[in-house]
Amino acid sequence: MVVERTIKAKLTQLLKAFPVVTVTGCRQCGKSTLLRHLLPGYTYISLEDLDVRQMAEEDPRHFISVYSKNVIIDEIQRVPGLLSYIQTHVDSINEAGMYVLTGSHNLLLMESISQSLAGRTGLLTLAPFCVEELRKTALLPKTTNEMLYYGSFPRIYDKHIEPSDFYPSYIQTYIERDVRTLRNITDYSAFTRFLKLCAGRCSQILNVSSLAEDAGITRKTAEAWLSVLEASYIIYLLKPYYKNFGKRIIKNPKLYFYDTGLAASLLGITSGEQMESFYMRGALFENFVVSELLKRRLFAGKSDELYFWRDSNGVEVDVLEEDSLELKAYEIKASETLNTAFFSNIKKIKDLAGLKSENTAVIYSGKSIPSSKENGAYIFWKDL
User: Fold this and answer.
1) Which of 41, 154, 278, 380 could form a Cys-Cys staple with 30, CB 3.0–4.6 A?
2) Confidence of residue 107 (pLDDT cuts 50, 70, 90)
3) If we measure between CA atoms, which residue out of 7, 25, 23 comes closest to residue 100?
4) Gap between the Cα atoms of 147 and 137, Å rounded
């Protein structure tokens, strides 16, 4: 079954406006499948292929003459020097939609693109399936626990792979193929332990010193490894809101995973049933919702203007979203039961932040209910 990706509309728009479109995202989130399905008239090549990569590295002019237009180049970060030749070529032809580039290393790719293709490429980030995509194709897990356990990677749904089989293999492949490319990491067991410790801190304020101490590494190493995880779309750091509603003491970001199935696997979860009584179920549900809100923005081609807010009294709002000069606020609760107390923190900053009731919501595991005058909406996660 082909899942219609919601990013398709924005991708189609950018292909008509830029000579190059660059699609980034983690491994196996569906970049190649999306592009080959959407652009059947394009030639697909992968720089993971040793022979193709060798030609691109050793004779880039010949490579460009062979692949001159309507080409999808996968894993472009493997040959960053090729971007300068692509720049010269697209400038001489000056047509829209000549190349679509993909990559799974944001750090390496963005550095190269900023030097070579600034102003010539539209940028998009793909992630594993969102709730809307799974719902429209009747693939959405039936329960909250199953959703948290299965996660959203396309291969799990396409090939009917059990998460307990998929994620350990994914982690091993990621570490062996990507981590050593981004940083000179030789102690893979230490890095795996660090990754598991990060999963144990999902939805929490990031304390790098504490994380480093528990992992038995230096703070500098922890910071470098966090940058690896962020650059390869494994983790996402949600920043604190930067505008004052009064005294704010929290300056560190909160740590989330792009995919809760991956986080659950790292935490040792091997079935959906285990999730019900798991001590981090609430944290994983919060992680899931934050990743969904992030995907909604990324797939629309918007910047990731999501934040959290906490004041000196410990009052916290889980997510603030800036959109079209308006501020939206969300509280996240794993509960299935309505409770007006869920809006208490939003109410405390409502006037300070200029929030409207129609722009506030609690995202939870119960039935969706429209906004009232007093409170915002209750949104069932399946309706996201």
Assistant:
1) 154
2) low
3) 23
4) 15
